[in-house]
Design a protein that fits this description.
The protein is of the alpha+beta class and 263 residues long. Helices cover 35% and strands 31% of the residues. It contains six helices and ten strands, in the order ααβββαββααβββαββ. Helix 6 links the parallel strand 8 and strand 9. Helix 4 crosses helix 5. The N and C termini lie far apart (53 Å).
Length: 263
């Protein structure tokens, strides 16, 4: 029923501003222009708005980094997530639910300026009182798999991170959360930020690596990208060779489901 709409009057005001921005600017501009216009329109109408508001992301009560919310209205009554896409996709909704979990806002509205008419999707914060238990089953492995028990423990840790945080954050957040989970599970690891690069035994200097060596046996790369490609696998294989590690794992936290590949 209309009477049950969360923050009904504020929602209508906000939607009117969003429509006005779309009508004046049109579709498919860089997102930063819509962000500036929406911020200006909200403040012009006396709606308290914080643009690019920073929130610290906690994992097991430890900081895993921070994330910036597009628009934070009236002290958390509404969270606006702006998109310029071909459609509001399920991944956009999953990401926004992650932001509701992070911020505890009452309502999130996804707004898409990339289509022939303005799209918007309301997501009330239904997760406050909803409890879902983590479930994970190890996959069957070939009999000649190296370190099968350690791989199972690592995969479980990675899936738990994705379950708790959800999609939508940058890779540094997931990387830090993964290390927190490894520590929590008693799995040894080394955080490798940089590696020396050589050509014919000549040291060219350090390059950015950002990988995690697990129990000196597995090299883990953590990503949050739309899709992983063969080049990423080639890179981690070079790093494995350099470090003398025989097993590599790529974990991509971008999607609704965690994607993990073994090298």
């Amino acid at each position: 029923m209309l009477s049950n709409i969360i923050h009904k009057e504020l929602s209508y005001q906000v939607r009117g501003i969003l429509i006005d921005v779309y009508n004046q600017l049109g579709p498919k501009l860089p997102e930063k222009f819509y962000q500036k216009a929406v911020t200006f329109g909200l403040r012009q109408r006396g709606i308290a708005c914080e643009s690019e508001k920073e929130f610290e992301v906690f994992y097991r009560e430890m900081s895993a980094g921070s994330y910036y919310i597009d628009h934070w209205l009236e002290q958390g009554k509404i969270l606006l997530e702006l998109k310029v896409a071909s459609d509001i996709m399920p991944i956009h909704q999953a990401q926004t639910i992650s932001y509701l979990k992070l911020t505890d806002a009452d309502l999130a509205i996804i707004v898409n300026f990339g289509t022939q008419s303005l799209q918007d999707k309301r997501l009330p914060n239904f997760i406050r009182d909803k409890k879902v238990d983590f479930q994970w089953q190890p996959k069957r492995r070939a009999g000649n798999t190296l370190y099968p028990e350690l791989l199972d423990r690592l995969f479980e840790a990675l899936h738990r991170v994705h379950f708790i945080l959800g999609p939508g954050f940058i890779h540094r957040v997931y990387r830090q959360a993964a290390m927190i989970e490894l520590q929590y599970q008693g799995i040894g690891y080394e955080d490798i930020h940089n590696m020396l690069l050589y050509y014919n035994s000549y040291c060219l200097g350090e390059h950015d690596a950002q990988v995690i060596r697990v129990e000196n046996k597995i090299l883990l790369g953590v990503f949050a990208v739309t899709s992983m490609d063969k080049v990423m696998g080639m890179v981690i294989k070079k790093q494995m060779k350099h470090l003398g590690v025989k097993v590599g794992v790529l974990a991509n936290f971008y999607g609704e489901k965690l994607v993990v590949e073994e090298m």
